[in-house]
Design goal:
- With 241 residues, this protein is mainly alpha-helical.
- Helices cover 77% and strands 0% of the residues.
- It has twelve helices and no strands.
């Protein structure tokens, strides 16, 4: 863990201010939120929970995809691999950096919601749910960055190709109970669906799924994504060097 925290610290210092990270992690949720808001009369509670879901999802998946290609391009990955650091510790450090980015930026929509007069029905749910969802999405992003390339835009393109469909099927813009049955079945396959439902429980006091199911689903997705990310990076790491 000590090595993972050191890698996380290095990633925070180097990659948080990179252009693609700011565009996909900060600006993209704002653009989508404005597009969602324009011409519509939406309750502040729904606005806050939707913006929170988008922010955590995009910010937590913005950092990891940028790291590996840049590390490969700058030849710093070779030095990391030749040091006594396992690939598991390396990937965990990258995931932690992305996780922190998601948790920190989640404070922005919450602050905006409070400024609009929104009351948190159950803030404890967010205290647990935001870190869990952020780690889950960071692990997903680690899977998306396994392609052995040194061109960041290639990974960002794959990441975008996966993230946008997940965003649109997850009940962020339309509450799950208003979707047709076939659409709700597709939504249940997305990890974003369960955090969106969780944030509505916390802000509006109601959701679509039973509350424990949201936590269990996020925990299962997190485990599967984390294991898959480490295995895929272990397999592809020799192709990067």
């Amino acid at each position: 863990m000590k090595r993972s925290f050191a890698i996380c610290k290095k990633d925070v210092r180097i990659y948080y201010a990179k252009g693609p990270v700011l565009i996909f992690g900060v600006l993209m949720p704002i653009f989508l939120f404005v597009a969602f808001l324009m011409g519509r009369s939406v309750r502040p509670e729904l606005l806050t929970s939707s913006l929170l879901s988008m922010t955590v999802f995009f910010s937590a998946t913005a950092v990891v995809p940028a790291i590996m290609p840049w590390e490969t391009q700058a030849r710093t990955l070779e030095r990391l691999i030749s040091s006594p650091v396992s690939i598991t510790a390396l990937i965990l450090g990258d995931i932690l950096a992305s996780f922190l980015f998601g948790v920190l930026l989640s404070l922005v929509p919450l602050g905006l919601g409070l400024a609009m007069g929104v009351t948190l029905t159950n803030p404890t749910l967010l205290l647990v749910g935001v870190p869990l969802a952020s780690f889950c999405y960071s692990s997903l992003a680690a899977i998306l960055s396994t392609r052995p390339t040194d061109i960041p835009s290639n990974v960002m393109m794959i990441s975008t190709f996966v993230k946008f469909p997940l965003l649109f099927i997850s009940g962020v813009f339309i509450p799950l109970e208003e979707l047709p049955k076939w659409s709700r079945m597709i939504a249940s396959l997305s990890p974003l669906t369960y955090f969106t439902d969780l944030s509505r429980y916390s802000i509006e006091g109601r959701g679509h799924y039973p509350l424990p199911l949201n936590f269990i689903a996020l925990a299962i997705f997190t485990f599967l994504f984390s294991v898959a990310a480490v295995k895929l990076h272990e397999r592809n790491m020799p192709k990067r060097l």
